[in-house]
Amino acid sequence: MSTVADKSAPALQEKGFKPKAYSRVELLPDPGPAKRYYTVVSVDDHLVEPPHMFEGRLPTKLQPLAPRVIESPDGSQAWVWEKSVYPQVALCAVVGRPKERWGWEATRFDETRAGCYDVKERIRDMDLDGVQAQLNFPSFMPGLGGANFTFHTDDPALGQACVRGWNDWFFEEWYAPHQDRFIASGLVWLGDPEVAAQEIRRNAKRGFRAISFPCSPSQMGLPGLRGGHWDPMLRACEETGTVICLHVGSDDWGASPPGSSLEVGAICFPLAAYRTAADWLWSGAPVRFPKLQIALSEGGIAWVPMLMDRLAYVLEHSAANPDDQWKEFGVHPVEVLQRNFNFCAIEFGSGMDLRERIGVDRIMVETDYPHADSSWPNTQETLRKALHGVSASDVRKMTWENAARLFRFDVSQSVIDSSESAES
Predict the structure, then answer these.
(1) Would you say 138 and 371 are in contact if contact means Cβ atoms under 8 Å apart?
(2) Pairing label, strands 68-71, 77-81
């Protein structure tokens, strides 16, 4: 691990983020194990890339250029990659930190709960929380959809090698030794949809079930979803059964007004999910590829009926013209939404009252470990309160069956039996 003083062109500062000054923090003691009421398969959690992630995983001539962790003069740590620096910030991994230290401040790996970046410790934290399995998204350095590997290098070969290196690390250290605990989700290089398709097929052969992709590529200056540019990638996803996971914030679009607080941005997450679903519907992608499955992450579910109502109204009014694409498609957008889209929630609220309208078979749960929204270490009790009065059949669907079906993930009967026994 090297030490550098020069932080020229730091990636976060380019986006207007400036971490607060670093100061040491003591982590809280471990919580006690949660009482298990349900089998839980969470479809939205995150990992923090460990310092050794890319060691030995790039071609020899590119290895010296691989992302690496540096120690800053103030004692904090950061990832550096070519001219970009990504500080380790507390807000990306708050589990185990005192709540008053959940801010946008620089930190270190040894002041981050080990479950964020060490798979054995992650499983231990999942056991403490009563969570059987997770699907993990990247952290800040690659970006939620891996876009930094495309945009922050002038060398496409290096960007592609970093994508493959990330996927190889995940497979070798995180997924392969613990296939009963993780749903494998990978990244693709966004500079060429044919290259992306090749990586999807490579990963599908070794058990990957999903990719993380930007919610709206056009928001990032990439070709939009219309026009067929992404069709090679979409075709590869459909043919391999790879789910496209669209995580709020993966395209840098914020639903909150410029200059508003961090809390306003978090409150507006559902608006970003609403916008994403509408954009993908009108792109025609899930019509061109009718077996394609899309999962919207961290957007909640209560907005889904509102979108359905608006879709129906607009189709009868402002979209009712002779050139309307849905007449050509021969299918209603609400039908496509309920056929090709999947949703997850960490807070259910009024969404539970509307679950039949949304489609109970399309709702999944998330714990969002290790972010500030996370229900860890109280996921079981949080779900118990949220699902009070819900039928046992619907509970099973939402807590694990829907996710297991969508991502073709096997949950052992012994795990199911132990949870149902505890619930009774």
Answers:
(1) no
(2) antiparallel
Residue 45 — φ and ψ, nearest 5°?
A: -140, 175
pTM: 0.93
Sequence-separated (6 or more) residues with CB below 8 Å from residue 301 = 343, 344, 345, 348, 351, 354, 355, 358, 363
Whose tokens are 């025609």? That residue is: 284
- Residue 314 phi/psi, 5° resolution? -60, -40
Work out the number of other CB atoms within 10 angstroms of the CB of residue 376.
26
* pLDDT tens, N- to C-terminus, the chain (424 residues): 443 333 333 344 444 456 778 889 999 999 999 999 999 999 999 999 999 999 999 999 999 999 999 998 889 999 998 878 888 888 889 999 999 998 888 899 999 999 999 999 999 999 999 999 999 999 989 999 999 999 988 899 999 999 999 999 999 999 999 999 999 999 999 999 999 999 999 999 999 999 999 999 999 999 999 999 999 999 999 999 999 999 998 987 767 777 778 788 888 888 999 999 999 999 999 999 999 999 999 999 999 999 999 999 988 887 656 557 888 899 999 999 999 999 999 988 888 999 999 999 999 999 999 999 999 999 999 999 999 999 999 999 999 999 999 999 999 998 887 776 555 5
Q: Which amino acid is at 18?
A: K
Strands 84-87 and 133-137: unpaired
* Residue with token string 């949220």: 386
| Angle formed at CA 89 by CA 274 and CA 82, multiple of 5 degrees | 95
Rounded CA gap, 408 and 179, in Å? 12
Long-range (24+ apart) CB contacts under 8 A made by 159-162 are: 159/189, 159/191, 160/189, 160/191, 160/195, 161/58, 161/59, 161/62, 161/66, 162/54, 162/58, 162/66, 162/67, 162/81
The 3-state DSSP composition of the chain as helix, strand, coil percent (nearest 5) reads: 45, 15, 45
* Closest to 66 measured CA to CA, from 165, 183, 180, 179: 165
37-423 CATH pick, 2.60.120.260, 3.20.20.140, 1.10.287.110, 2.30.40.10: 3.20.20.140
Q: What single letter denotes the amino acid at residue 349? A: G
- Other C-beta atoms within 10 Å of 360: how many? 17
Q: What is the distance between the alpha carbons of residues 96 and 27, in angstroms, rounded to a whole number?
A: 5
